[in-house]
Amino acid sequence: MSDSFEYLARETKSDLYSKAKKDRMGFWAEQANQLHWHKPFTKTLDWSAAPVATWFEDGELNVAYNCLDRHVLAGNGERIALHFEGEPGDSRSYSYAELTAEVKRAANVLTSLGIERGDRVAIYLPMIPEAVIAMLAVARIGAIHSVIFGGFSAESLATRIHDADAKLVITADGGFRRGKASALKPAVDDALGENACPSVENVLVVKRTGGEVNWTAKDIWWSEAMAAADAEHEAHAFPAENPLFILYTSGTTGKPKGILHTSGGYLTQAAYTHRNVFDLRSESDVYWCTADVGWITGHSYVAYGPLANGVTQVIYEGTPDAPHQGRWWEIIEKYRVSILYTAPTAIRSFMKLGRSIPDKFDLSSIRVLGSVGEPINPEAWLWYSEVIGGNRAPIVDTWWQTETGAIMISPLPGVTTTKPGSAQVAIPGIVAKVVGEDGVELANEESGYLTIAEPWPSMLRGIWGDPKRFQETYWDRFPGQYFAGDGAKKDADGDIWILGRVDDVMNVSGHRLSSAEIESALVSHPWVAEAAVVGANDEMTGQAVVAFVILRLDQVEAAGSDADVSRVLREHVAKEIGPIAKPRQIMVVAELPKTRSGKIMRRLLRDVAEDRPIGDVTTLADTTVMSSISAKLAAGAND
Ligand code: WT7
User: Fold this and answer.
1) Which residues form the AMP-binding enzyme C-terminal domain (predicted)?
2) Nearest protein Cα to ligand 1, atom 12
3) Which residues contact 248 (CB under 8 A, 6 or more apart)?
4) Which of 597, 605, 439 is nearest to 506 (CA)?
């Protein structure tokens, strides 16, 4: 299928490919120079300390200034930066001048609380304007934010606060989700309880729901601090490599990784990709990315990319079904959204509800559609294109990761002829390969591993506090190349198809979860002796969490005969990690399939979870284990 639309920018965009090919460094320097540099850079890349890159090293900039003041000074202060739509129906809009004023005050609040350059600030907020304001205020003073998704539990919050030694937490009384107020502050109280996070000196609390809050000596109302703060704040320049944020993501071990991003290179690529992948025309566009700022998509394509480009965007607090199933389409109609960026899992859930719901709204403003987070199946792609895009809007399927910081592989509207289900081509400036076990590039049609062969500006600079893990996870497997953890294949045209993770990382509704992390949550429950977790195909969520557990029967019996093992363990995982990690299914088994060296063979468990004939069992220490698991499941002796 081809997109038949002519784009004004067609020529310029195809030029990007040839320019980047001819002179990759010159190309990135040109992109970086679209930002405002307080002190211009003279060096583009230093890769001599690989795998830690420095980009634009001797340049100095202020990230928040680039996202705010610069637009105001250019005479665009009246342009709307954020249209905020609250779930209960309240809305607020901020012009660039107003958003700048808020961030200046917030920067002064942070400074008055003793936050200095390099200090870590944890942000645990719902999708409200204060989340963006807080991030930009932290950036403005050269401090480092660590945003923690509001759906994470107190336990997860505590681990992350602790790992980064955050000095301040910014939270809210709660937010609105699924038609009701949902509290956030209690999780912060739990996380900080009994001095579990001694680094935290203060907690700033935004009033959103007006619900009851427990008040501690560290707590300060955001509104009071803002009212007392000075309105003026001058943005100072920081070196390009000044850390901007840490964002935790799941890896193959139980401990989340604090992915570190810095300033100049990150902002360069976030802004460049946002501009070109979404075919921006800033005057007329209204852009909406539905991601929460708790994920990388919300960092690069809500907070930084769009604001650096000075566009008008929509942010929405709640769930797509509140108070009715057409809420998203109503928002698009209300603000005349022209660019929509969302995840396949959302598209599939709308598909299931049927086209009659979006058909009730005027979606004619839509011009470009984006997809991110997981492979988009061709059915969902076609539905998205036809029902939401009216067969006019091209779809950009964007592949990237928390680690890559910004989009890496994606068609460019008007240049690339799109193909349902394929992320297609590395964007100009990026060199992506599909390699075999030996790291050598494969021929088209052969499946292998996705790698990035050359450093890029928004690449992670490390894992917070763990340089060894950084080296081992991404660089040791294929020396000289970044190993993404995804399987991939190029088709006969050379277009890239992402085949999913090749490690023990799952992708549930576009969110990354680690098997090991959920396993350790399960075994922390007294009833569980051993656990193995796999991601099984799921029609709605892409993958779903399926857990196999060996119970400590004496403990379960002690809890009484009516113990609901499945429910208790699912709730336990939600409490330990967050509701997104809750297993779809808990399967009680007597044994787990292991190799002779004791490694759990998750591949075989995946066969069971996906109802497939069980694969090769010859490497198992005990080859009868799988037949006893299948027999037990077939007999229904399970929860
Ligand atoms: C993993 C990264 C990138 C922001 C959201 C997720 C998968 C991401 C695609 C896509 C196929 C995709 C990969 C990747 N993924 N985008 N367009 N097609 N798979 O960020 O949590 O860091 O997860 O998401 O498996 O490795 P993340």
Assistant:
1) 517-599
2) 374
3) 146, 148, 160, 163, 256, 257, 258, 259
4) 605
Task: Please give, one letter per residue, the 3-state secondary structure of 82-148.
Answer: EEEECCCCCEEEEEHHHHHHHHHHHHHHHHHCCCCCCCEEEEECCCCHHHHHHHHHHHHCCCEEEEC
**Is there a domain that residue 84 lies in?**
yes
In this structure, the answer to whether residues 293 and 397 fall within a common structural domain is yes
Residue 20 half-sphere exposure toward CB, CA atoms < 13 A = 17
- What digits encode the pLDDT tens for the residues 165-221? 999 999 999 999 999 999 999 999 999 998 889 999 999 999 999 999 999 999 999
Torsion 509-138-197-224 (CA) sign: negative
Cα 484 to averaged position of ligand 1 atoms, centre (Å): 10
- The verdict on 455 and 521 lying in the same domain is no
Q: Quick: pLDDT tens for 589-632.
A: 999 999 888 888 898 999 999 988 888 888 888 888 888 888 77
Q: Which atom of ligand 1 is nearest to the CA of 505?
A: 25
Summarize the confidence of residues 72-98 as an average pLDDT: 97
**69 pocket-lining for ligand 1 (C-beta < 6 Å):** no
Distances (CA, A) of 514 to 69, 249, 425, 428, 562: 40, 9, 28, 32, 31
For the CA atoms of the chain, what is the radius of gyration? 24
> Does the beta carbon of 484 sit less than 6 angstroms from any atom of ligand 1?
yes
Whether ligand 1 lies within 6 angstroms of the CB of 398 is answered as yes
Ligand 1 atom index nearest CA of 510:
6
Residue 227 phi, psi dihedral angles, 5° rounding:
-65, -35
- Residue 273's SS3 state is helix
- Do 543 and 624 share a domain, yes or no? yes
Number of folded domains in the chain? 2
Sequence-ordered alpha helix ranges (H) in 542-599: 553-558, 565-576
| Same-domain check for residues 70 and 195 | yes
Percentage of the chain modeled with pLDDT above 70: 97
Q: Tokens standing for 49? A: 């300390």
Residue-number span of the structural domain to which 380 is assigned: 12-486
Is pTM beyond 0.85? Reply is: yes
**Which pairs from 186-192 meet CB under 8 Å and 24+ separation?**
186/154, 186/214, 187/124, 187/152, 187/153, 187/154, 187/157, 188/124, 188/154, 188/157, 189/214, 189/216, 190/154, 190/158, 191/154, 191/155, 191/157, 191/158, 191/161, 192/158, 192/161, 192/216, 192/218
Q: By alpha-carbon position, which residue is closest to atom 27 of ligand 1?
A: 401
Residues 180 and 268 in one domain: yes
Q: For 496-527, how does the pLDDT look when each residue is reduced to its tens digit (9 = 90+)?
A: 999 989 988 999 998 999 999 999 999 999 99
Cβ of 345 closer than 6 Å to ligand 1, yes or no, is no
Q: 533 alpha carbon to ligand 1 midpoint, in Å?
A: 20
Tell whether ligand 1 has an atom less than 6 A from the beta carbon of residue 372. Answer: yes
